[in-house]
Amino acid sequence: MRAKHPATRTGTRTTLGVTGDAFAYKMTASGDTVFVAINRGDSAQNAPGLPAGDYKDLLTGATVTAPLSLPARSGFVLSAN
Q1: What percentage of the chain's residues is helix, strand, coil (to nearest 5)?
Q2: What is the distance between the alpha carbons of residues 46 and 53, in angstroms, rounded to a whole number?
Q3: What is the dihedral of CA 65, 1, 18, 12, to 10 degrees?
Q4: Dmax of the chain from CA atoms?
Q5: Could you give the CA distance from residue 34 to residue 14 in angstroms, rounded to a whole number?
Q6: What is the mean pLDDT of residues 7-14?
Q7: Which of 43, 61, 67, 70 is 20 to 30 Å apart from 34, CA to CA?
Q8: Based on the number of CB atoms within 10 Å of its own CB, is 6 exposed (0-12), middle (13-18) or buried (19 or more)?
Q9: Residues 6+ apart with CB under 8 A from 46
Q10: Residues 43, 59, 54: CA angle, nearest 5 degrees
Q11: pLDDT tens-digit profile of 18-41?
C-alpha cells in the first residue's frame, strides 16, 4: 500500500473531523489522496468529516461507502474509487 500511494509516505495531512473517539484525515501528495478514519472507542462511531462517496479500503480491498460507520477500535485507510 505504501509503495503504491505516495501520500502515505510523503503526503500532507489535513484533518477532516474529530470527535471524542473518532478521527478522520486525508493525506495528499503528487495527485494521490488517501483518507484515514480511526475509532478508538468501545462503540461504533461515524467517520467525522469523511466526504460522501465510494472508497476502496486499502487494507482489505473491499469497497465501502461514506457516510461510514467505524466499528469499535478499528480504522480504515481508503482511496477514492
Answers
A1: 5, 55, 40
A2: 14
A3: -120
A4: 36
A5: 11
A6: 94
A7: 43
A8: middle
A9: 22, 67, 68, 69, 70
A10: 80
A11: 999 999 999 999 889 999 999 999
CA pair distance 46, 31, nearest whole angstrom: 27
Q: What is the pTM of this model?
A: 0.93
User: Grid coordinates in use for 34?
Assistant: 488517501
Residues 40 and 9: their CA atoms lie apart, in Å, by: 23
Is 72 in contact with 40 (CB distance < 8 Å)?
no
Cell of 39: 475509532
Residue 44 near residue 69, CB atoms below 8 Å: yes
Q: What is the DSSP string of 1-29?
A: -TTT-THHHHPEEEEEEE-SSEEEEEEEE
- Amino acid identity, residue 1? M
Site of grid cell 503526503 = 11
